[in-house]
């Protein structure tokens, strides 16, 4: 399991988790009332992931 803290202009980082099991990896963006994710960071993460899937 890997936890990436992604910083942007917001003082709080976005937490992206990667969990591997049986040859598969799942990505999750941690978002709940205690873990706010700035919409700009969320959008940048989603766009980056989508671009990497298309390549």
Describe the fold and architecture.
It is a single chain. This protein has 55 residues and is α+β, with helices and mostly antiparallel strands. The chain has one domain (2-54). Helix content is 29%, strand content 36%. It has one helix at 39-54; strands at 2-6, 14-21, 24-30. A three-stranded antiparallel beta sheet has the order 1-2-3, with no helix packed on it. A hairpin with a 2-residue loop joins strand 2 and strand 3 (24-30). The longest helix is centred in the last third of the chain and has 16 residues, at 39-54.
Low-confidence stretches: none
Multimer state: single chain
Strand order, main sheet: write it out: 1-2-3
- Mean pLDDT, to the nearest integer, reads 89
* Structural class category: alpha+beta
For the record, the count of structural domains works out to 1
If you compute it from the alpha carbons, what radius of gyration comes out, rounded to the nearest whole angstrom?
Answer: 12 Å
Number of strands: 3
Q: Quote the beta fraction.
A: 35-45%
Shape: globular
Share of residues in helices: 25-40%
Number of helices: 1
Q: Order of helices and strands, N to C? A: EEEH
The largest sheet, given as strand count, sense and whether it forms a barrel, is: 3 strands, antiparallel
**CA-CA gap between termini:** 24 Å
């Amino acid at each position: 399991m890997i936890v990436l803290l992604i910083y942007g202009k917001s003082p709080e980082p976005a937490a992206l988790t990667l969990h591997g099991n049986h040859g598969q990896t799942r990505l999750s963006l941690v978002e709940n009332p205690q873990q706010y994710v700035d919409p700009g960071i969320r959008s940048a993460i989603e766009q980056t992931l989508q671009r990497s899937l298309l390549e």
